[in-house]
Recover the amino acids of this structure.
């Protein structure tokens, strides 16, 4: 086993709020500068840009994990990850179908850009991705399991789109092993405010929408290989796996 | 000012999802409208009706914590049976109505100020 430095929450140009400077090359240059080994592109409710970033990452021998940021019916953001690309895309399609049929307003939210392998613009996603699924938190959790994925709530220290903001506190079910925190989170303050969060493994990531924020938040995983299955095991400390956030 | 619970239910054409026998124990002295549970925890007061479209199990815990007498689901939102069972355990009255949050709050306000 060895230590891997990971930033598991990065937006691409597909996210309406993602800056156009977040091209695959720019993101990967920034990741290499910060010695990141594993990253995930987690756009809102879609994986349409995964392949482009994945291919670019392979050129540089970086591990690009398949991820997505789901907005549940309760307006909670969950990060979901998949080892199998087939499972991931099937999940993404099911989620897309569960989104409310509302068109994106680029003037207000920004463009939702779909990129090709050479950073060329293939098109624009028309359906508003910054939108909720009809799936509840519980249903989304079940769906992720159904497609062999792993998920945890994003940015629990944020004042919006977190479980604590929306539901007051983290319910006993679904049984999350980990919760996400932002780059700026001061863990001691978080535990003072919500002592029961000590029961969870914390995963810090950047939630970068702008290039300078990539790798500003990261987590180190002591694992066998850079996979979702290993990260999941590390969250429960199985067989000597560890996490530093 | 205390509102007659049955009168309130009638005014919003509501359906009681929990025990109808114990309605006389439900004290309504006002209302609070919110779909953010953290906001309710911070700002709702005892014996208010909470009007919401949220139906997560945590709604019951938060209502109970804030000593709210009753949760009223707008837009015909119907919680799962597990949520209703929990409400019965916690002595929280659950009502649902076809009306919107705005309409329900308006009618409650009228009852309070007539």
């Amino acid at each position: 086993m060895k230590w891997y430095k990971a930033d598991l929450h990065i937006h691409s140009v597909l996210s309406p709020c993602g800056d156009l400077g977040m091209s695959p090359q720019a993101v990967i240059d920034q990741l290499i500068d910060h010695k990141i080994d594993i990253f995930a592109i987690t756009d809102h409710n879609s994986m349409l840009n995964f392949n482009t970033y994945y291919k670019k990452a392979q050129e540089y021998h970086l591990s690009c994990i398949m991820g997505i940021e789901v907005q549940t019916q309760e307006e909670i953001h969950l990060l979901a990850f998949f080892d199998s690309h087939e499972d991931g895309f099937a999940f993404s399609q099911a989620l897309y179908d569960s989104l409310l049929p509302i068109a994106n307003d680029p003037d207000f939210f920004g463009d939702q850009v779909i990129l090709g392998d050479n950073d060329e613009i293939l098109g624009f996603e028309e359906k508003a991705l910054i939108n909720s699924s009809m799936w509840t938190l519980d249903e989304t959790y079940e769906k992720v399991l159904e497609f062999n994925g792993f998920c945890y709530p994003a940015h629990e220290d944020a004042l919006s789109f977190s479980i604590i903001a929306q539901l007051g506190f983290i319910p006993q079910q679904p049984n999350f092993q980990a919760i996400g925190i932002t780059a700026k989170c001061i863990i001691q303050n978080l535990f003072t405010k919500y002592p029961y969060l000590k029961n969870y493994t914390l995963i810090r990531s950047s939630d970068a929408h702008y290039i300078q924020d990539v790798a500003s938040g990261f987590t180190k995983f002591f694992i066998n290989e850079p996979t979702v299955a290993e990260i999941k095991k590390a969250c429960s400390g199985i067989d000597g796996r560890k996490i530093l956030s | 000012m205390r509102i007659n619970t049955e009168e309130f239910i009638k005014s919003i054409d509501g359906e009681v999802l929990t025990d109808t026998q114990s309605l006389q124990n439900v004290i309504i002295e006002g209302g609070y409208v919110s779909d953010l549970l953290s906001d309710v925890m911070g700002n709702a007061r005892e014996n208010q009706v909470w009007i919401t479209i949220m139906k997560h199990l945590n709604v019951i815990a938060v209502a109970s914590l804030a000593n709210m007498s009753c949760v009223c689901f707008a837009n015909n939102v119907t919680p799962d049976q597990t949520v209703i069972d929990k409400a019965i355990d916690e002595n929280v009255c659950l009502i649902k109505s076809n009306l919107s949050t705005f309409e329900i709050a308006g009618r409650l306000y009228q009852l309070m100020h007539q």
Q: What stands out?
A: The two ends of chain A are 18 Å apart (CA to CA). Chain A touches chain B through eleven residues (CB under 8 Å).
